[in-house]
Amino acid sequence: MHKLVMFAACFFITAAGCAQKAKQGNYVATQESVSNTLKFLSSDELAGRDSGSEGIEKAAVFLEDIMAKNNLKPYFATYRDTLSNFAKPAYNIVGWIEGTDPKLKNEFVVIGAHYDHIGTGDSKVKGDTIYNGADDNATGSTAVAELINYFGSAKNNKRSAMFCFFSAEEKGLLGSKHLAEKLHAAGFNIYTMLNFEMIGVPLGGTTDAYITGMGRSNMADKLNEYAGKKMIGANEFEMKYQLFRASDNYPFFTEFNIPAHTVSTTEMTIFPYYHHPDDEFENMDTAHMAGFINKMIPVVEKMVNAKTKEIVLKN
User: Fold this and answer.
1) What is the rounded CA–CA span in Å between residue 301 and residue 29?
2) Measured on CA atoms in the order 177, 183, 185, 191, is the torsion positive or negative?
3) What is the pTM (predicted TM-score) of this model?
4) In terms of Cα–Cα distance, which of 304, 282, 244, 229 is closest to 19?
5) Is the pLDDT of residue 41 over 50?
6) Adjacent-strand bridge partners of 128
7) Share of the chain above pLDDT 90, in %
8) Quick one: which of 196, 160, 199 has its CA closest to 286?
9) CB 196 within 8 A of CB 261
10) To the nearest 10°, the Cα dihedral for 106, 141, 275, 51?
11) How far apart are CA 276 and CA 136, in angstroms?
12) Is pLDDT larger for residue 120 or for residue 6?
């Protein structure tokens, strides 16, 4: 998550709990699959995935391979979308699956997460200077990877679906700003955008997740309708610190004036590892993650396959 909320998040503790797995179609996000992706993206080998670093290059290759294995098409010449607003070479990883409906395939749903983090620091915590960024945001990237696995195998998307791993989010949403501006200039036909950020621990309470900027559209209502229960709600911390503006959904909202939101399961008021060296794989709840992702798969599928543009901005 962008450093906008860093000052307010240094004292938090982890929530507990897990969710049930549910199979959709021919693919299920297993705890093993989730763990394998998350463990690699948050490993010391990647040295905190700072934008423009050797570590994030390894992450980029790994995510490109997931797209290639699922037969996603590169949206540009390759899966790499080179940032125009960052000094070092940095890349969004962008692929897509064409829709199956002759008309609806001309509309895109964008599903994204940032895969960068803040790299390494001078201060040591128990001798550790690597900010692994497991929750922030290897978990969101893992969710997008699992959605790619699902849609790549199911081929059940009437609309076209674009999957994005954004770079330089921690530098000020630079990857998503670059891509949203580029797509807008090209006349990109977007229906809505859903972003995943920090889903590594259970939220607690009566909902599985919260959505940023809940009052700006009816997306939360529609996602809950698709889920058949109140799965997504509001969050006081999110509203107080305007997290709607703090992640990669926001440039798509400002560029296209469409519903674009982030979902998260991390309760920031009790999470202790935000921008901290202990934001590591071992502190993530992969059973919860697999359960949440499997709940989101049919929800996203219904969003992609809705007959009309049901998700709309509120006045």
Assistant:
1) 14
2) negative
3) 0.93
4) 229
5) yes
6) 125
7) 89
8) 199
9) no
10) -70
11) 10
12) 120
